[in-house]
Amino acid sequence: MKRSVGAEDASAFIDARINELGDWRGKTLAKVRAILHKADPEIVEEVKWMGTPVFSHGGIVCTAETYKNHVKLTFARGAALPDPAGLFNSSLDGSVRRAIDIHEGDRIDEAALKDLIRAAVTLNLKVTPQPRTARKRAG
Questions:
Q1: For the segment 105-117, what is each residue's pLDDT rounded down to a tens digit?
Q2: Which residues, listed in sequence order, are joined to residue 56 by a DSSP beta bridge?
Q3: Edge-to-edge strands of the sheet including 60-66?
Q4: What does the pLDDT look like over 55-88, one tens digit per residue?
Q5: Residue 113 gets which letter from DSSP?
C-alpha cells in the first residue's frame, strides 16, 4: 500500500493522473480540482490510500476517485452538510459520508459545489481540535 505523499508530489501525481486519463474523466477531475481551489485557496492536495486524490483543509474535505463510468467526490463529513441544491447522489445511506457521482455529460453546478466545499471546510475547522496554548504556571 502506498503512503500519503507531500503536497508538491501530490499535485504532480494528480496532474499526471489527469493527463493519464486523457478523456472526459480527466477533464472532469481537472474541473473539480479547479473549483475546489476557487472555493478555498487554502485547500491542500494529498494522495492517500493507494493513489486516491484527497483535498483537505482542517481535515479531509473530499476525495476524488475516477471509475470507468463516473468521477466520484466523496465528502468525509457529507451527512452533516447542508445540500440545498441536491448535489449528493451517492452513498446517501451512510451515517457520515456523502458522495457526488459525476457521469459523462453531467453539468456541474459550480456555485452549489463551491458552497458545499466551503461548508465542509467550515465544519472541519469547527470540529478539528485547535492546538492549546501554553499556560503560565502560578507561583
A1: 999 999 999 999 9
A2: 44, 60
A3: 44-48, 52-56, 60-66, 70-75, 98-103
A4: 999 999 999 999 999 999 999 999 999 999 999 9
A5: H
pTM, to two decimals? 0.84
pLDDT 10s digits, 8-26: 688 888 999 999 998 999 9
How do strand 98-103 and strand 52-56 relate by DSSP bridges? unpaired
With 0-12 / 13-18 / 19 or more C-beta atoms within 10 angstroms meaning exposed / middle / buried, residue 19 is exposed
Cα four-point dihedral sign 44, 56, 37, 74:
positive
The dihedral built from the CA positions of residue 55, 111, 95 and 67, taken in this order, carries a sign that is negative
Provide the residue count of the chain.
139
Which set of grid coordinates corresponds to residue 103?
A: 457521469
Q: Which fold has domain 7-125?
A: Aspartate Aminotransferase, domain 1 (3.90.1150)
Per-domain boundaries in the chain: 7-125
